[in-house]
Amino acid sequence: MNRLLPGLSRRNLGRELLAGVTLIAISIPINIGYAQIAGLPPVAGLYALVLPTIVWAIVTSSRQLVASPDASAAALVASSIGGLAAAGSQGYATMALAQAIICGVLFLAMSAFKLGFLANFLSTPILVGFIAGLALDVLVSQVAKMLGIHIDSGAEFSEKCVALVTGLLGANVWSILISATAVVVLLLGRKTLPIVPWALVVLVVATAVVALTHAGDAGVAVLGAVPSGPPVITWPVLDWHQWIALVPSALALTAVATTEGLLVSRSYGEQHRYPTRPNRDLLAFGVANIAAGASGSFSVGASTSRTAAMDQAGSRTQLPSLVLAAGTVLLLLFGTALLAEIPSPAIGAIVGVAVVPLLGVSEFRGLWRLSRFEFWIAAVCLLVTVLVGAIAGIVVAFVLALVNLVRRAANPAIDVLAENDDPGASLLDEAPTGVLTADGVIVVRMSAPLFFANGTVFAQAVERAVEAAGSEQVHSLVVDMEGITDVDVTAAHAFDGLRTWLRDREIVLAFSRTRVGARPRLSRFGIIGDDDPVYSTNRAAVSALTGVDHGPTTTERS
Predict the structure, then answer these.
(1) CA neighbor of 73 nearest in space, from 232, 259, 231
(2) Residue 425 pLDDT > 60, yes or no?
(3) Do 449 and 458 touch, CB atoms closer than 8 A?
(4) Residue 556 main-chain phi, psi, to 5 deg
(5) Domain positions in the chain
(6) Strand partners, 305
(7) If we measure between CA atoms, which residue out of 52, 49, 133, 41 comes closest to residue 88?
(8) Euclidean distance between CA atoms 464 and 318, whole angstroms
(9) Angle at the Cα of 123 (from 121 to 125), degrees rounded to 5?
(10) Measured between alpha carbons, how far is 38 from 390 in angstroms, rounded to an integer?
(11) Which of 42, 419, 507, 549 supports an S-S bond with 32, CB 3.0-4.6 Å?
(12) How far apart are CA 452 and CA 147, in angstroms?
């Protein structure tokens, strides 16, 4: 049992089974709502809790991460397929299956090529903005459902907002009453008795009230008939150009699930001191998505909220996921008739309350306080996602990630070192102090690889330092190479210009603390010449160049 479900023992079996019951209570109403967000029949959300959940629980290295469709995945499915087929049509559902299978293949490829490290590429501000944009789009749809206003789930965000505002006069009073009561119960219940599955309570009570009062006759929308029986293995049949049209959205879904899933998996693994393997988790996401596409569901990612709920329930294994799969099968076999009278406003309230935290209000506030630049990165991602589309949002997210990366790399720490190797003055200051390390000698250190984004910055910073100190007083420049681990052609050209500039002023160029592994590449690119002195320490360099004993004078020759 431990091999199949690491962490499970007789001591925690009862707790894990109880956590599984809680997971059933949370997941069934939420997945029904997410399926509707995606423009698919409710049963597609239930199918995601069977075969995909089973294979995920068996294959993953994480003992706690819950894999399931979430709000962001549902919104991406709706926005990407909505422009290719009519929501609710057979073609639309087939495309959702194909999209999940493409996601699965992409996950498998990432696992095979060991690309789990890519989870660190999208920064927190980018994820906050992108997910907040998706959540805002979902929230508008759920508010409309809560008010009894019909809007097209596949429409653009601006069209949804217009439809919501223009439909306010036709809002259904009974729908508003049901949804308002549901929201109050969910919010108050979460604060007073968080252990109670309030989403399930709301769903059961609201369904009973609608069935007894025949509120459906008064205009309250209900879920309707849900097909009974377990999921059937199938395969989507599409033209090749339709498969290709789904690739961009599948890439977006994969990117979001990879980043969120691997980060959450690692976080809980570190917190509870058990090992996780990112590439194994990518494999698990791959087989889970292929299972979803082959069993009538849609793309599966990581459910952060349900993972947190399981952690709070004391679960430390994947047994609750298997309990969830078994419970869903029983519901599909014997209980689908109970789902027909579920009121849509109650589902809208449950999903809406679950989605609000994804808006990231506190995260935006924190970004504004800590870094205005990163705040605006998150804001741009949000605006592009809601105004242009989810695919454009993920593209902009990657571009902004690159811009942010290059921006930071282009402004490395470049310091003049004092005789004790401590930084003396920053060379990126507008008015460098021009501190000399010793008589006639400047020792400069850059704490970053030397490449196209900072090669010219380094050369100009050194020139400013020499001029500020008085070029006639400087006879030697030592470059501390400890932080320079790599170089490229563009930076080599910039450094060659610096070498010429120093030679014209009869300033000797020397190097210290060069990393052994970096020496061959630095020499090949001409950063360190054959006749350049290379010293083991900065003190040795200063001693040799000034003729004053400052410590060890070990000297190497390239």
Answers:
(1) 259
(2) no
(3) no
(4) -115, 165
(5) 13-224+233-405, 414-557
(6) none
(7) 41
(8) 60
(9) 155
(10) 13
(11) 42
(12) 55
CA–CA separation, 416 and 424 (whole Å): 5
Q: What is the distance between the alpha carbons of residues 419 and 438, in angstroms, rounded to a whole number?
A: 7
Report the pLDDT value the prediction gives residue 430, as an integer from 0 to 100.
Answer: 40
State the Cα–Cα distance between residues 537 and 547, nearest whole angstrom: 15
Cα–Cα distances in angstroms (integers) from residue 49 to residues 55, 297, 355, in the given order: 11, 9, 19
Q: What does the alpha-carbon distance between residue 278 and residue 261 come to, in Å, rounded to a whole number?
A: 9
Q: How many CB atoms lie within 10 A of CB 520?
A: 10
Residue that has been written with the tokens 């910039």 in this structure: 494
Structure tokens, 414:
């470049």
Residue whose C-alpha is closest to residue 44's, from 332, 343, 391, 355 = 332
Please report how the helices 390-409 and 247-272 are oriented relative to each other, as an axis angle in degrees rounded to 10: 60
Q: What is the CATH number of domain 414-557?
A: 3.30.750.24
Both structure tokens of 72: 């962001």
Residue tagged 């499970």 (tokens)? 8
Model confidence pLDDT, tens digit, residues 136-181: 888 888 899 899 998 876 677 888 889 999 999 889 999 999 999 9
Run of H or E residues at 423: strand 423-426
**What six digits make up the tokens of 453?**
């984004």
